[in-house]
């Protein structure tokens, strides 16, 4: 099984923290969609004969697409790929796009899972992040989606926001729980270069992110969602039984995926490639029947590092026997040596041939993975 990711590079407004590729002008939307349909044809053999069990419309803000545009893209995919009848079809959406009318339209498309970018139920946080919607719209968007028949809904929340107290963060979690959604993704606010947030901090207009507060709010998150029967199946992702994100789980399990659209990434097990981060260049290249991408063949060390980085973040853990059978003896010896310090510190635990992060270890997931990497 494999997945397809479709990047829709348009947003109505730029969020202060976001460094994804997007444009706030919709002038090139039709040009991008025309080019996207051509790219689907040119990349039809990338995944070989793999059946497609997930399709993910990401961005940007894919909810700017009409039901007709979504249907056209999906029809083009169906022409060249074998899409499983029970495939998970996710669409990222902003709350302000999800009117009752829009949701009624979406319910008539192949989309069967909504990822709603709420980020916070506090208007002060939304203003700080430069989100376009209000807390009231956030709540209404989820309730209206449920009324429209969408049962598989995930919402995004951000913690570690300047000015967000632990008690206020708890209330955010409580609101999410009250909406009875089966999946919640939560991320610590990260200051990315070249974003407005980075500029504000550099100029001294606002304070930087407090790592101690972020850690405290992550622990609150794990505790509150754990008490409410959410499974912490990946560092940033929590779900009720049966509602894991199949698309993202495929990423973490090392399955193949094809990325379509400007800036989209693809992976086939041995190499990685990424499309140009420019709508105009993307359109121009496809007009000339060329897919504008760069490609990197992965070394054994890179493949090992990626496996550790992704697998260690999940409930399924890092399989030492897989490493022994798939990589050189040097790599197997390396991880067996380096993991001991984290086992002794209570950041990892081992069951038979797998290692997993403890709750303590989850606070340092990236550092632990980095220390297990091979750099040469």
Considering the chains and any ligands shown, give keywords for the structure.
nine-stranded mixed beta sheet, TIM Barrel, alpha/beta, 376 residues
Question: Which SSEs are present, and which pair or pack?
Answer:
Layout: E1 2-8, H1 29-42, E2 52-59, H2 67-80, E3 83-93, H3 100-106, E4 113-119, H4 123-129, H5 135-147, E5 153-159, H6 166-178, E6 183-188, H7 196-202, H8 211-227, E7 231-234, E8 237-239, H9 246-252, E9 257-260, E10 265-267, E11 271-275, H10 279-287, E12 293-297, H11 300-311, E13 318-319, H12 320-326, H13 329-338, H14 340-344, E14 348-351, E15 354-357, H15 359-362, H16 365-372
Parallel strand pairs: 1-2, 1-9, 2-3, 3-4, 4-5, 5-6
Antiparallel strand pairs: 6-8, 7-8, 10-11, 11-12, 13-15, 14-15
């Amino acid at each position: 099984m494999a997945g397809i990711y479709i990047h829709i590079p348009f947003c109505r407004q730029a969020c202060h923290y976001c460094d994804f590729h997007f444009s706030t002008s919709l002038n090139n939307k039709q040009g991008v969609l025309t080019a996207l349909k051509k790219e689907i044809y040119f990349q039809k053999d990338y995944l070989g004969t793999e059946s497609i069990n997930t399709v993910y419309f990401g961005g940007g803000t894919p909810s700017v697409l009409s039901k007709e545009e979504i249907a056209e893209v999906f029809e083009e995919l169906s022409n060249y790929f074998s899409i499983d009848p029970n495939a998970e079809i996710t669409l990222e959406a902003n709350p302000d796009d999800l009117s009752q009318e829009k949701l009624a339209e979406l319910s008539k498309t192949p989309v069967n899972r909504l990822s709603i970018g709420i980020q916070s139920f506090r208007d002060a946080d939304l203003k700080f992040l430069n989100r376009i919607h209000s807390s009231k719209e956030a709540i209404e968007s989820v309730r209206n989606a449920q009324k429209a028949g969408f049962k598989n809904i995930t919402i995004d929340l951000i913690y570690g926001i300047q000015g967000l107290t632990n008690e206020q963060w708890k209330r955010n979690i409580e609101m999410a729980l009250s909406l009875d959604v089966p999946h919640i993704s939560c991320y610590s606010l990260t200051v990315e270069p070249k974003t407005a947030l980075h500029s504000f901090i550099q100029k001294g207009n606002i304070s930087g992110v407090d790592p101690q507060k972020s850690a405290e709010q992550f622990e609150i998150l794990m505790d509150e969602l754990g008490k409410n029967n959410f499974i912490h199946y990946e560092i940033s992702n929590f779900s009720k039984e049966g509602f894991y994100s199949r698309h993202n789980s495929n990423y973490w399990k090392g399955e193949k995926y094809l990325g379509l659209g400007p800036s989209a990434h693809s992976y086939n097990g041995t190499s990685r490639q990424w499309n140009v981060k420019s709508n105009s260049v993307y359109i121009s290249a496809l007009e000339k029947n060329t897919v504008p991408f760069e490609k990197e063949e992965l070394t054994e060390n890179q493949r090992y590092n990626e496996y550790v980085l992704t697998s260690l973040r999940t409930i399924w853990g890092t399989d030492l026997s897989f490493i022994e059978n798939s990589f050189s003896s040097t790599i197997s010896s390396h991880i067996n040596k380096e993991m001991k310090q984290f086992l002794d510190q209570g950041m990892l635990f081992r069951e038979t041939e797998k290692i997993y992060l403890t709750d303590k270890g989850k606070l340092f997931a990236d550092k632990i993975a980095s220390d297990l990497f091979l750099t040469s």
